[in-house]
Amino acid sequence: MSTATQIAVDLATVSPVAGTKPPAYPLASRQSRAGASTVQVGSIEFGGPEVVVMAGPCTVESRRQLLEAAQGVCSLGAVVLRGGAFKPRTSPYDFRGLAEEGLRHLAEARTLTGLLVITEVMSEKDVELVANYADILQIGSRSMSAFRLLEEVARTGKPVMLKRGFMATVKEWLLAAEYILAQGNERVILCERGIRSFDSDFTRNTLDLNAVAVAKMETHLPVIVDPSHGTGRADLVAPLAKAAIAVGADGLLIEVHPDPSTALCDGKQSLDLPRFAALMSELRPFIAATGRRLAMPRG
To answer: Which of 10, 191, 218, 229 has a CA between 20 and 30 Å from the CA of residue 173?
Structure first.
């Protein structure tokens, strides 16, 4: 009997608390676990007393670009390096990443800086390859409902950061998380990254901070916020990052590029290193006000 089948059988034999309706996402629900769960990745804990900052370029463009970004964000307090080796693009003619070469650059950056690495896996056929390099596997917004991919990623046992689909409801997002949990992988981190709305004149997406508060109440899973994709504007990243902390986010995913004006992907929403330095300084009092502290690099 598969893990998912066994879980379904077990759930069918459990009676819900009197007067309550069983949740559609029983493994993610707080009904399955009273307290918040944490996800340990190396020396970093998601969902605990520390706020985790993950930063780096949208896409790995070259060895030089990535190492400069990695060394910069590490010196400024990030503990996880983000960078796409495989990139989903609306047009097949846009830059779509360096694939395994990009993964090798990420691994080198980890060796040089000590940063953990998070990168996106887009296809079932790439899961084993990406898992060999990454510390955290990212499921992007466009892949949230690729259910066989979710199951394949889950079976690696690696931590998985699940981005909300840009047109997904909160319930659909949590049910996608259930696909991973149902395979026996409890190392799931949710990520709110903005949803498509009717107002595209000023922002790329609408960052749904309601969803962050709801997810923290409904589930025991850590919740991360991506204000870079959530707004599509570098000048809005800082205020939305602060707001995310205020509503209870466990961490932030920030796009940082050594020179956003030359970025091959998402330059308009990327911070340069001086702006990232300012953001990290400004975040500290907000984090302290919530009774938490900023996660720091550990040797």
So the answer is: 10
